[in-house]
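Exercise 7.
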Amino acid sequence: MEQQKTIAIAITGHFYTDQRMQRISSVLKEMNFHVLLVYRPFVKYGNIVKNTELKDMDLLAIKPLFTSGILFYLWFNVLLFFKLLFKKIDIFYAVDSDTLAAMLCLSMLKGKPLVYDAHEYFTEVPELQGKSIKKWIWHRLTLAGVKRSKLCITVSNSLAKALELRYNKPFSVIRNVPFYHQEPKVVPFHSPTIIYQGALNKGRELELLIEVMKELPQFKLLLVGEGDLSATLRELAQKLKLTNVEFKGILSPNELKIISAKCFVGYNLLDAQSLSYYYSLSNKYFDYVQAGIPSISSHLPEYEFLNTEYGCGICIMNTKEALVETLLRCYSDEFYYNKLKENALFAAEKLNWNQESVRLKELFEPFN
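Solution. The predicted structure, written as tokens, is:
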């Protein structure tokens, strides 16, 4: 009987908050790989909601002394290297460039294949804008990792093309889509709710969204998540004396599914000053699709392509005028809105993990 192969997956985040890696790990287990997932048990905001379906996962926690900055990355990779050095690993799987240093060294030292999974355009994230030395270091590390990798994957077609051009190596696409769980509900027009889910961070045009609610008293806004702007946004809503804005904090995936299905539209505007944001394809877009609700996104390549193909959402300029006009049209033109919702329900049958996991299995079959 052929011996089961072990894949070591490294992420700098918390496994219980990373649904993409939960899904990928589950598929690899289905393929009879032994999955060892190394993660950092640290969450900046809120409490962890543990998924009981993941209880059989082989998890290894790393607790570095530092929580951010260059010392965190150095310390995490040193600990990661020594945690895995004496374990029997057949495949090293690095999630983003911040785990590459250790996984690349281990792959070379042990003569085992390396997989690189780029969740974003790491050298072009907003945090590295204007920091040429740091950007050069991350670029050289990423270049070395990509060259060594037997398989490179990422989250969107436009990002795959950008990375292929930068590193001269093909990237396969595994989108961050949820499972198909369609349970469409009728949305009452007399109480339309806008939902935003995700981090309350800079660049998400959340200030614009809250300010717009002053002009749309007939709408309600739910903000699900926490982030660096949590306090600032709450203060803004209080300053504007808004009674139609509610902060829900961090919810479990199941709670989010139930709430989203009862909402009117999903919000997905993004200030894409960095290339990482420009080529992004957020999981919230697909969560809105699975909830059977239209979404409002920025004019960015991935959203324009998907909305053209499926007609399940609208791309607009990042302005108050465009946002107000779009929301009022959805509210006043029932035929227009219902067509968007109908298209979202259709898109949900195509844009889901049930479909995407087939591609993932094809990519990893040669390693088995």
